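Hi L., both proteins are below.
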Amino acid sequence: MIHNDRELEATQERIRRFENLLAAARAVESPANYTAMASGYLQEIRKMQAAILACLAESPHTSQAA
């Protein structure tokens, strides 16, 4: 759960880092290795994206209160 704008920005940055890591891995890993290593990162990206959407759906005053 994201409680404030600072956490929102940190989560967005973490997603960018994971996406960059996966993009780099696609260039050097075999398809089998990539699929195996990417699944955990993709699952974590999905969870973070859901948290971001939940945060953005809240009123700014609600998310700033915590």
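That was the first. Here is the second:
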Amino acid sequence: MKRLVGMACLLSWIAAFPVVPIAAQTLGMIVDNATRKAVVFNADTDTVTGSVSLGGYSSMGDCSIDPTRGLGFVTDFQRHVWAINLSPAGLPSAPNPIPIATTGEDISLRPNAQHLVVCDGASWEPVSVIDVATRTQIFTFATATGEYCNSVEFASNDSVLVSSSNAGNVRRLYMSPSGTLSDTGEAMSVADPNNTVAAPGGASGVVLTRSSGEVRSFTIPGLMPADTRVLSPFGIISGVISPAGNQLFVRDNGGAVSAFGYNSATGAMSATPFVISIASTLSFFGIDQMAIHPKGDKLYVSQPGAVEVFSTSTGALLNRSVDSSISGPTGVCLPSSSSSCSAPAIAGAVAAKPSLWPPNHKMVDVTIDYTATSNCPGTCTLSVTSNESPNGAGDGNTAGDWLVVDAHHVQLRAEHAGRSYTITITCTNATGPTSTSLTVLVRDRR
């Protein structure tokens, strides 16, 4: 008689076999001012995977990563944004580079990956909006006459933060679904802002000042000041907030990265748990010279001749990525947080043969159909368990009752009626694993 066996009754006869994987890796990028290259690295192994030479002669700027398309974007101070294929590293076809209306220094990717915003650092030029799908500039927005835009940052509620060093303020713009920008009228006075950082969730942000060394948080919307710290008199050049929204890292130009506890809902900063000693480097308006792994465990800091990797929990040096293409790095970028990746969604899981017949002790090919979707690369594998020992009484004395062929195919032995197999599909990306199971029976009749 036919019977189903629950997971609680399964014995621990689990197969662990290699499968045909889809490549899964967290790819980041380093922009190098000396070699004029975009250097791609695997942030899971902290190894350089390739580099791309960019034309021209001017300074290089900031970068952003679009995990949904496997692309990086780089500014070059020559009214261009370069699109970079991440795997393998290379230049995609035209339009590339993308012409823009601003000299280009700072860049930020919309959380839904549909648009990029770019601004210059020290002149009155508009904010450029790029449609990522078509790789074309679709809109420009000019702030008040004579008011520079020296940093630009997306928040996750369709807010765009722009700072102006000569006007001494931070403004909140709004972006429509189609990519047009408008001024909300919200502005906060702050002396000599150098960079802005938006917290995950979009409820708060941080502005970093160039001359006074002030770190000021504020709430969004409204741009109401929330908390303030004063650090190095050398000025603050870059900051980054952890994917969980509970840590703030601030880099000054005196040779230190200071860590703070952070409340992304309120903007409150707690005491500094540790300070990381680093080399001083050139200051750039808006360029993000640090990045955090989407898992939140590693902090990447550009240094002369290298990019150093530190633990976000202790500040300990974990790795030092050195490559001939890394000489004078500026921007460092990774997918902004694990929320940039959706967890793998497994749908339509079904066995092409939900039951096996006849029970003749022979191996039967079984196709496992399913779809796994995510906006980030991932790996899917199959594993098999049985409700019985692989070589028990009455099963024909034949061990080795299953074989995982690849991520969609297994072989199962048609043993005696009542035997069942549970096939588990596990798909994993930067967010972690997602699994689902189905059961194949050996039937007692047709």
